[in-house]
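help with these tokens:
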Amino acid sequence: LQSLHDHCKTLDMQILKITAERDMILSNFKLLAGAVQLRDVDPFKFSATFISPSPGDRPNSETHPDVKFWNKSEFLTWLESYEAQLANRGKLPYLEQENSDPVLDDEVDAIRKTLRGAFSELNNRGLAPARWGNLTASGTDLMNGIMEKAHPIFRLANNGWKLHHLAISSYPSWRRNHIENAGANENSKKRKQSASSESIKSEVNEKKIKGMNLTYPINVADFLQLILWRLLQ
């Protein structure tokens, strides 16, 4: 009966943990849905196709001639120029508005917040790679859909290089803090719980043995042999 009671307590703890994880996922989904202006979307039936822009609607150098950095090579060339030394293009100089103006710091902060939420969504869906370069096509579609819907300036780049450039520099630290360290902490917690459980069992066994006027610990086999020996006396 005690064993059944302990098992029920373990199940209750697991239910609480799963419920907390579900609530966290729903909270993150609502945050992302608000950022990309989605309404009345079932999080359990959500698909990136809901927010993926149509390829035919994408801006290009002809529709937006004022954009400076359609390609990464253009940005790298500019970065080495005299103009770049005098310019003040903020925290992320390669990001730009449709008229080529730099992105303000407040928007950069909002972009980073959305990016962290997108990383979390990748992890929730089992798409978070060990290295950003290993991101799958499904993960790429999801990232592009979320980020371009929330911040259309990421569409002002050929092959999505601006989002890739930002993600590849931001992802390692996010993964370390939210996946690797979290996993290490969880394993450490489990080891401590296991050690505590073994300590309690050992203490209980020793008390039972001492109740038979024994003052030293013995293993289970020796204990059973001792009982059998006393019964035969």
